[in-house]
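Model: Ready when you are.
Researcher: Fold this.
Model:
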Amino acid sequence: MDAQQNLTVKQKAMVEAHCHGIDEFLVKFKESQKLEAVTFIDDRNILGMIYHLKTGDAKSAILKYLVSYDEIFEIFTLVWKSRVKANISTFLNSQTLWTFSYSISNLTDCSEELCYAFGEKGLLTLLFRDLKTGTLGDRHISYALTIIYNCCWKVSENRVICREFVDTLQECSQSKNPEIQADAFLALSYIVDKSEVHKISLNEPCLKFLLLTLKSAMSEPGRRFHGYSTFEVLQGLNQLAINDCNKLLIVKLGGIDVLERILMEEGSSNEEKRWAARGIWQLAFKEENKVKIHQRTTLLNALEKIKETTEDCDIKDACSGALFVINDVLDIDDEFKGHIPICRDGGHSSVKNEVSSGHVEGHIMISYQHASQERMLEVKCHLEESGYNVWMDVDKMKGDILDSMAKAVQRASVVLVCMSHKFKESQHCRTEATYAYTLKKDIIPLMLQDKFTPEDWLGALMGMKKYYPMFSDDLMRQCLPDLVSELSDRGKREKLDLVVPSDDEVTGASNPTSHAQRQRDGTAEDDVDCSGGNKDDKPTGNGDEGNSRSQTTVDLGKWDEKKAGEWLRSYGIDTSKDSFKKVDGTRLKQIKKLLNLAPEFCLKSLKDELGLCLWDVLALVDALEKL
């Protein structure tokens, strides 16, 4: 098996032994296709043995082998149908079937492949349809929900399947059994649309169950309790805390105490600390919570210490985000919206002071979620060609991401907020947008997703502002002139000729001094393309035909895929890959712009998306520079 290539001799022997056990377990069922034939050899529960193996490459290899057998899913289907019909006890080997059933449930907690197969083979739909009848007892409901929750948590593709059964999960969330409620709410938290967050409003018994489970798991050697790991409960609470009522309830029932303990305990893993810090960050978006968190010196010191000492970038980012929101961001749609952000030293926000102390304001900042990056790079290029100074975090982020973002907001004349579901869901995007609101920056909304309606915090931020739809190429082309008209002189480069920002690398701005020098040299801004060269530059040399390829003036917009392919091959670039079939002159022009705007991102995309080797990348860059 390919999965065994990196295993030690001892691990390979263990894998082979367990795979042999799987074969033995299935052999009689393969022959008869009847449940009566399902038995554990020598009373050894091979599935339970696999579950209790230490997580690692060997266990993954065994689970992949298990999932490769269709018979496993055939047995599961027969067992489940028998359980639902309440006739499983008629089999002599009913205990074996119960054991098999619960072992499969446990294994969905540690195998993405198994969870994916449950969705692909229609087993999630099978479970939901029986849940929907409303005739199952708590034992069967709890069993089904455990599998459904694990499959939603681990495999995003399964969430699409489960979207059809949101109402069924909602009904389960109203059960009197806290464990059933918990699994239903956790599953819902991964599949509901963010405009439906009211559907994951927790009640006290359910949240108390989750917090007790979390504390109990923290006290266990394996960091697991009642089938839940510390990590998954933390991640689940983060999902549930998207609902503002849940934010308040989590704090009310002592959730901050648990998160603080995880951050401070030496036994906590990096993964646990990251989600604990993200939890504090999420909870702090409610001003009422923020006030309480701000009074907890021990917690704030723990976040500061971890931020300064950890080498894990994700943990550092989570701690930075939490501290930034606690100290500097004013909630938008809260009853406290008239308050000034509090600061740990009792004064005003430290980052706000940088603006009030005379720092330069002047660029257009683009606040977007990564999925919108390609379109926003086009907007950025258009604005720069129109004479604007534009900040975008493609490859300008140096050092602390939150600090770079804060400086970018502080120095912005206007912030373009790129609205979409993913933007609304992102903690980073919410932090960025609400900080712009806190500093009373001019905000212009851009709509990046068709039929998206901004609600909750994003709806409050946008209010009645006019937005520009840019979720298609045609709409973007139509709206850009109007956007430029609304921006007017705000963020124009000419305004920055008077002063020099203290940190150009952080703001991502074009160098104002260089621009002023071009003005004095008599080179008008309109004569400069986005690559920094003059539009009217002519090839240098003696004019011989041999030098004509040093720089060529062509209309790329007229090149079709065939012409573009011929040109690429003339520079020795291999265009045989399928990824080149859509490359025409317009695409080449876009690549050239992207190469100048965001070289690191562009080079990575050429390798990852087009599948170019290093030499082809270098050849393409050289060729584009000569156009």
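Researcher: Now this one.
Model:
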Amino acid sequence: MSQKPRKLQRVSKACDFCNRRSIKCGRSADPLGRCQNCADFDVPCTFDRPAKRRGVKAGTRASMRETPLVETPAPENVLPVPPTGRMSNSSVSRSYSESAHRPSLTGDPWSTFNVGGVATEVYDDDSALRNSWNAFAIASDRQIRNLVQVYFEIVYPIFPLFHKQSFIERVNNQEHLRNPGLFASTMAVCALVSGRARDGALFTNRWHREELAEPPSEAFYAAAKDSIPRDLAAARGINYMRACAILAIASIQNGQIKNMQKFSGMYHTLTSMEGLHDEKLWPKNLSPIEIEERRRLFWSIYTLDIYSTIVWGGVIRYREAHSLVRYPSEVDDELITLHGYGMPPVSPDSGDVTVVSRQPVAWLRGWNFTTDLYRILEYVVDGNRRRFSSANGTSQVWSLFTPASMSEPAVMERVLSMYAALPSQFKETPPTTGDMAKDLFGFQSANIQATLQLLRMVLLSAEELGVDRKCDVAGELLSVFSNVPVEYLKAISSPLLHHLGGIGYILGSVMEGSLSEASYQRVRTLLLEMADLLGRLETGLQRAAGASQRLRSQVDRIDGYMRTSRLVNLTLQHPHPQHNAIPIDNKREMPFPPTTYIPPSGPVPAVGPPTGMGGQMMQFQLPPELLSDWPWPMDGAHSDGFLPLAFE
């Protein structure tokens, strides 16, 4: 009797690596017997996770047997080993800091992985996830090192959250593979830098966008996000604070504003628990490097907090009056060590000049001045908000303690006197050179100019300005940005769009008001200048893609409306003669504007001279439908934010 053929069955389960990523686990010709994905990533191919039976589980979780936990002492900041066996529901939710850890005894990053039957700890789903991302980081080691180098070129000048020499050394030594907090902040750095590089922020010949494209920014973003403990009480130390802060900045880069608010909130939660706002609450054994990094982190995200409040609304989390943190020392990173601060070389100039006066100016002098501007912005935002505080039905009490707000000219006079006292390096913006010792000053100059214009726009938003004054201001703002080398503007990247959004806000308020032919022509010129500036930026910046063309199309539509209005006025002022009249085809009586023009639904207002001898142009108002897709908000009614983009 012939034997019954064996029924073919599908593979029961994927390997641990493929299972964590929900990807197909396929065979390969790897001599080590690994699947194709594990061979591609050069990681062990294991099946150490516990098997789970299909269908409804019999009984309750409490009736399940648990594998006993073998406790082993572990140093802090060491990545855990993915354990085997089962654990209860309460154990699964246990944070990584409470789980057993296995240090790397050999220094080999792979030694922290469970390579089959060695680990005695119970299985922790979070540990497996972290180790999967650890494998991803090992496979992407070269790219991570490159992105860290690029960070110090295009992000560090504005957000100097790391001490350069020590951070690069730690990444080169793969310390981030053994330190969970450092891993999270390193992955966040890679996510931000990769996104900026994708959007055209590179300005030197050392790097090319295509070389930094893989793995994509989203992969590093997910790695950083998954590396932050779900229980924030377990996220101890500066690295987790730094990771949340950088993820908030990366979210702005990607236009994910809700995620920006989420990670900003996580950052402020951690800083409250760690006492970052008061140096007296910091650990007593911090090195000079750690002290400076904490100061830079605090004031960097203070400025980001003020900026996000202006742009998207919300509340200011930390007030300068509540903060007891010094400014970062105005010393370059190479002069800051674990043991103290060095002195920069003194210039060899002779004469009676003192040694102190001959010390070179540090770029952090300009960075600290930008922080001064944001501290001023905090009070300007408060003043603007108080104008609307009566709408919530509460009585006004702030007037008992606060003097009358100052006008825009008075504030700007004081600010410009502070600006005039800066060294000349921060008042000039030369083209980029590729020499970061020089370009750091150019970045500070560009950032100072952008922040000065932001301050001016917020001040002006609280005042009633005429059309001519608004056009003057918008023209001056455009002139400032147009004179800054485009490489700096691209490196500042997505946040700059919201500075330009302030100009769009001003011009939008002009467009929705009463216009004359002369005022429209002036606004039209400014809009085209703004489209040119956006065109210079959008070559790589994804979120600005098409913005300049949309603005030009908007101008074309309004031009079409204006041409139609002039023809109507001419027809009304010069009616056709009754005698010897030439028949006119009604279909050709009024030429249609370009195809981009959408005719307004309301009556066409009179545009043009009221009489044949009138020198003054009549006032008119554009119909709302012509401005319905204006890229920026037309008034302050949209939210308590000032500069959000309509196309986010």
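Researcher: Key takeaway?
Model: The radius of gyration is 31 Å.
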